[in-house]
Design a protein that fits this description.
Elements lengths: L6 H6 L3 H14 L8 E2 L1 H8 L3 H13 L3 E4 L3 E4 L4 H25 L2 H16 L4 H18 L3 H12 L1
Antiparallel strand pairs: 1-3, 2-3
Helix pairs in contact: 2-4, 3-4, 5-7, 5-8, 6-7, 7-8
């Protein structure tokens, strides 16, 4: 029998570079850094209380996620996507989320629907506030992806959500 680790157990096993990458990713997603902004290694290392080595590893993780671009001798910058690239990402994401939603629909029981209900409620409540709706939609999308009970699919949806 296989057991699924709890979020707390997963958090305990994340490396420092992964934790830093997740924190910087959250800052990028929350628009504390704009597309094209340079990420100053020295400042970030000081802010995180680490040497530049784990910070550089974190930036490489973010580069793999598509959130930053690293240029030799110039450092890391927040990825700046063209309208066409954004359209392509949303097209792919819609297929992945559709697959997750189908999986959820085929296994939905009262408990699962109850777990997802607050997300639908937040979406309804935020329909007239674009920024609030975007956040509620992102949260609902991630909840559906995780509820699909397919870790690889959830990982892909999370990756696209970060981009």
């Amino acid at each position: 029998m296989t057991s699924t680790p709890t979020p707390a157990a997963v958090a305990l096993h994340r490396t420092m570079p992964t934790q830093i990458a997740d924190g910087i990713a959250a800052d990028i997603i929350e628009e504390r850094y704009a597309p094209g902004d340079r990420l100053n290694e020295k400042e970030l290392a000081q802010a995180w209380g680490v040497s530049r080595s784990p910070l550089r590893e974190a930036l490489r993780i973010l580069e793999k996620r598509g959130l930053v671009v690293i240029t030799p001798q110039r450092g890391a910058r927040v990825t700046s996507l063209s309208p066409e690239e954004v359209e392509h990402l949303f097209e792919i994401r819609s297929v992945l989320v559709g697959l997750a939603a189908r999986r959820v629909a085929t296994r939905a029981d009262a408990q699962l629907l109850e777990r997802l209900a607050p997300h639908w409620h937040r979406l309804e409540q935020s329909m007239h506030d674009g920024e609030q709706y975007a956040r509620a939609s992102a949260t609902a999308t991630l909840a559906v992806a995780h509820a699909a009970d397919n870790p690889r699919l959830a990982e892909m949806v999370v990756s696209f959500a970060h981009q």
